[in-house]
From TrEMBL:
Keyword Nuclease among record annotations: no
GO function terms (MF aspect): DNA binding
Highest taxon above the source species: Bacteria
Family matches, as PANTHER family: DNA-BINDING TRANSCRIPTIONAL ACTIVATOR DEVR_DOSR
Name of this chain's protein: Two-component transcriptional regulatory protein, LuxR family
GO biological process: phosphorelay signal transduction system; regulation of DNA-templated transcription
SUPFAM superfamilies per record: C-terminal effector domain of the bipartite response regulators, CheY-like
UniProt xrefs under Gene3D superfamilies: 3.40.50.2300, Winged helix-like DNA-binding domain superfamily/Winged helix DNA-binding domain
Domain HTH luxR-type residues, every copy: 137-202
Keyword entries, A-Z: DNA-binding, Phosphoprotein, Transcription, Transcription regulation, Two-component regulatory system
Residues of the Response regulatory domain: 7-121
Modified residues (4-aspartylphosphate): D56
Amino acid sequence: MMAERAKVYVIDDDEAMRDSLNFLLDSSGFEVTLFEHAQAFLDRLPSLGFGCVLSDVRMPGIDGIELLKRMKATGSSFPILVMTGHGDVPLAVEAMKLGAVDFLEKPFEDERLIAMIETAIRQAEPAAKNESVTQDILVRIASLSPRERQVMDGLMAGLSNKLIAREYDISPRTIEVYRANVMTKMGANSLSELVRLAMRAGALKD
């Protein structure tokens, strides 16, 4: 049993299937959220905590394949398992190509589903944690004033305080104040740490 209840998001237009998956997953220790269609899930996606998505592949409106395309476009790190009906192997293969972790053919064994969800979450968690760290750095960068951002870019370009001061026609003393603000807001104790953070967030210009 996992220390913290891992989240599973079930997307299926079949109410009986949703109910049975809810019962199975809840009793297996997962925190389950049910969605009748993919649009409802996508609308909530930005506010959802990391978890495994379990989606039917054939659904009215946005089907499982379209859902995968949209999640890929948002750069979501949620692992996705798709459920397919008998004979839907070509769809399942397409889903895998679009980033689905695995697929299950209905009807499937409960134990197999539980094992697949646990594996999917375990494998995707490090990437999700990385993603949240990157997001945190981006938030810090966004908190910089325009002038602080200019100073940070100058530091990233390897310029000295004096050169940055000359470029923006302000005193080196003022640059030192901005530089200290940048370090504080970015949570960096050294220039090398600031460079690492900026690289992680993709904020370094080539």
